[in-house]
Amino acid sequence: MPFWEKGPSEKEYVSHSPDGHDGHDGHDIVNLQDGEIAENADMLQRRLSNRQIQLIAIGGSIGTALFVSIGGGLHYGGPGSLFIAYTIYACMLALVNNCIAEMTTQYPVSGGFIRLAGHFVDDALGTMAGWNFFIYEALLIPFEITALTLVLGFWSDNIPGWAIPVACIVSSCVHVRSRLSSS
């Protein structure tokens, strides 16, 4: 049973100081039945520094699609339409990120938005969100390889179209093999 579905008799935060502030942030869970104290129910550890979080955000916002698809919009709509579109997109993305941050702060679970969709709406939606994310990530790999081929083909005609996918597959196999042999 997830920690948020347990009743107040099964979990509670116990403060050891008279004023209720003993250096804890209030997220400690004391399970009175098992006698186990955990940071959260999934043993989720938060060890990312501010710099790592900023680099993840920058890497997620600057992608290959930005360089590949921006040319058509710039040609047909001009710079003003691109600015308006990216402003609206950024505002919607900020709203979604704020909602995810609020839900994750309230219920810190590993699994992110997939588990949150299952909790706040329905388990079937959580399952479908998980499969949708898997399919999205699986289709992203061929898209990135295709985009890389297009970008490199723009600069040089000497690179054959088959060389980039073959190089990506070979490098992936070498990486997987090296990871398997090191463990």
What class do helices, strands and sheet pairing give?
A: mainly alpha
Low-pLDDT residue spans: 8-22
Count of extended strands: 3
In sequence order, what are the helices and strands, one letter per element? EEEHHHHH
Query: Distance between termini?
Result: 33 Å
Strand order of the largest sheet: 1-2-3
Total DSSP helices: 5
Report Rg: 23 Å
Question: Helix share of residues?
Answer: 55-70%
Overall mean pLDDT: 77
Q: Describe the biggest sheet?
A: 3 strands, antiparallel
Shape: globular
- Please report which band the strand proportion falls in: under 5%, 5-15%, 15-25%, 25-35%, 35-45% or over 45%: under 5%
List the helices and strands and how they pair.
Layout: E1 11-12, E2 29-31, E3 36-38, H1 50-61, H2 64-106, H3 112-120, H4 123-155, H5 163-182
What would you say this structure looks like, in words?
- The protein has 183 residues and is mostly helical.
- The chain has a domain at 1-41.
- Helices cover 64% and strands 4% of the residues.
- It is built from 5 helices and 3 strands.
- Strands 1-2-3 form a 3-stranded antiparallel sheet, with no helix packed on it.
- α2 (64-106) runs antiparallel to α4 and α3 (112-120) packs antiparallel against α4 (123-155).
- It is globular and about 55 Å long.
- The protein starts with 10 loop residues before the first strand and ends with a helix.
Which structural traits does this protein have?
183 residues; mainly alpha; three-stranded antiparallel β-sheet; 3 strands; globular
Describe the structure concisely.
This protein is mainly alpha-helical. Helices cover 64% and strands 4% of the residues. The two termini are 33 Å apart.
